[in-house]
Amino acid sequence: MATAISGLTSLEQVGTTYVNARHAIRSIAFLKANRLRRPDLVLTFGLPLVDAKGAGLSQAESYSAHEEVYLAALDLDDAPLAKRCIEVLAGRFPGSFRVRTLQAMAQEAGGRFNEALSAYNAILEDDPANTLVMKRRVAVLESMGNTTAAAQALVEYLALYSSDGDAWLQLGKIYLVDSQYRKAAFCYEELLLLAPTNHVFHTKYADILYTLGGPDVKTARKYYAHSLNICPQNNARALYGLMMCCQAMASAGPARSKDKDDARKTAALLEFASTQLEQMYAGKASVSDSTVLSRMLEGLA
Amino acid sequence: MMQPPGAEVEEEKGAELFAPDKIAHNGRTIYTCRVGSAIVAGCVAGILGMEGLPGFFFFLLSCVATSAMLCARMGSVSMFDYFAKPYQVWTDGLTEGLMSYILFWTLLFDLVYIF
Amino acid sequence: MQHELVLDPAIRDWVFLPLIVIMFLVGILRHNATSLLRSDPKPGDKEQVKQSMALMRSRRLRANARYIPEEAYHARRHYFSHPTTGVFSQKLEAPPNALAMMSDPDVMQNMMKGNMATMVPQVAMMGVVNQFFSGFVLVKIPFPLTPSFKSMLQRGIPLASLDVTYVTSLSWYFIVMFGMQGLFRLVLGGSEEDESALMMSAGMGMMPGMMPGGAMPGQPVDNKKNFEQERENLSLVEHKWALAEAEDVLLAGVKLAGASGARRGAPAKAKSS
């Protein structure tokens, strides 16, 4: 029966020294589950497991540990260690897609991008819907600086797996770097569909709309307001965005009768935002930052 | 022994967010306790020579006792933190417990009294 | 304690206990055999994945349409349900139906292996018990049952006056079988749990989100009806933009907050409108 070790819930519980095999396995699983990229910690915990040839571990645990140590070794540029791990894995699982992917990742880590790409393409021919390999291809293309091809590859991936929020986020970032704001907005709309209660997505979407300018500024303001509705505390970015939108709208529109309502709203929002920001900075920021803020607010108001 | 769902990578405010492997682990823990106590209770019932209705009452008693002990062990934490439905500690795994209970009850009973 | 019948210790040694032990061992054997016989999952079918993902995306769109602007919603709806170019309007090639699937050697093999490993030992044991261990009383069950159970539990013993609680080996077989299930999960489940701690996180790293529960690789699903259903559902949705009054909500919240005009103590997690 499984021994009763309490689950790990924080990095402090993980610690930085090797205690025993069970704790090591749990720590590595914790790092992986929380997507913490700490190859140093993985090595601290994983190296004894690999060296001791997996004593006290089940087979599956031992091979998983080998895989994690391999990836950490690639991160830390420790080629001999990586070679050792992959040889164990390749010996036990010859020809498996997972092992082939790991071997190709070694090429990627070494900067040999073209070889890595051809290796990935070969795997995709045999296993066309392999998510990990598709994502690695995108990563390689981005490392090569070929953002167009990376975006293309990511679009192909998303055509298959449209609920992968991380992929949409990545595509959005690529488009923003390329200044393709309409396409980036599309990506963030998908993210809003995936996680409508996440205020960060609302803020970022509003940023993109504001950047597009024109009529989109009105929509942007609504998204900033909504972001503040969802998360009223510590949401400085949305407050700034709100202010910028109000500023833009106040200086742009000629006074029409319908707009008087809107103008009042704009003024109210502007005051709200500046009050909030002043309070936030008063509590936490340094004196110089606060002065900068008040000067900026004077200039805007 | 019990694991809280733990920190999630994607924040979703307002919606319930569960970590499936932790929930499964907690469910397994309850199951283990339930079956284990059923086995022990079955042995005791068999050795004591309980028959019929008192035997079943004893089973229910052992279920309640197990759940109560689990609650006490968990202390003051909220049920919602650990389980999808807060009353799971009391209702989970009763059928398998009953089956195991009957098996060991019959086994010990016959070993001790009939043979 | 007085009992009506006293049973021969020989029965205990040669039937009662061995039956339990054998069933336990067979169960473990079966478990190991299944894991050995299980073959690797086939690489996924691209087209199937695409279709189920399209369905999921459309459902998501319907569920959360209020959070994106109207144009964005209509563009996506157009993408899905346009009469000629829409995703849900495309002609699907009929997936291999069940009959054709039968002739596919791989699928047949897997099905047979799965069934064999579970059914055969149980049926075989039942046959053995019936053959060799019938005709005598084996066990006294400690709880009473109605007399109507007698015919079932006392097969092969034509004694009308025998108490229901004395039963044959077949019923003992069933009691053991049901009771063992819990025990097996305890003993064998433990070994699976350790693996899952590490492998699940490795697996989670690779999965992009959740695959729809129905269509797992290896089982082609006919999506024609699903597509039509989604088309209809999409046409029924009226887009009501949740953010139309967002600024008013914000300002209203400000007014309610208090004299100092600041939002004091607002909860960290507010429900979205």
Describe the protein's architecture and organization.
- The complex is a heterotrimer of chains A (301), B (115) and C (273).
- In chain A, 76% of the residues lie in helices and 0% in strands.
- Chain A has 16 helices and no strands.
- In chain A, helix 2 (21-33) runs antiparallel to helix 3, helix 6 (97-109) packs antiparallel against helix 7 and helix 8 runs antiparallel to helix 9 (147-160).
- Chain A is elongated, with a radius of gyration of 25 Å.
- Residues 1-6 of chain A have low confidence and may be disordered.
- Chain B has 5 helices and no strands.
- Chain B has helices spanning 20-48, 52-74, 79-82, 88-91, 94-114.
- The longest helix of chain B is centred in the N-terminal third of the chain and has 29 residues, at 20-48.
- Chain B starts with 19 loop residues before the first helix and ends with a helix.
- Chain C has one domain.
- In chain C, 59% of the residues lie in helices and 3% in strands.
- Chain C has a two-stranded antiparallel sheet.
- In chain C, helix 1 packs parallel to helix 7 and helix 2 (46-64) packs parallel to helix 8 (224-236).
- The longest helix of chain C is centred in the last third of the chain and has 38 residues, at 169-206.
- Classes of the chains: A mainly alpha (301), B mainly alpha (115), C mainly alpha (273).
- Chains in contact: A-B, A-C, B-C.
Short description:
Chain A: Belongs to the EMC2 family. The complex is a heterotrimer of chains A (301), B (115) and C (273). Chain A is an all-alpha fold.
Major beta-sheet overview of chain C: 2 strands, antiparallel
Summarize the largest interface: chains and residue counts: A-C, 61 and 57 residues
Sheet with most strands of chain B: none
Number of domains of chain B: 1
β-strand amount of chain B:
under 5%
Order of helices and strands of chain C: HHHHHEHEHHH
Main location (chain C): membrane
GO cellular component, one term (chain C): EMC complex
Transmembrane segments (chain C): 14-33, 123-143
Protein name (chain C): ER membrane protein complex subunit 3
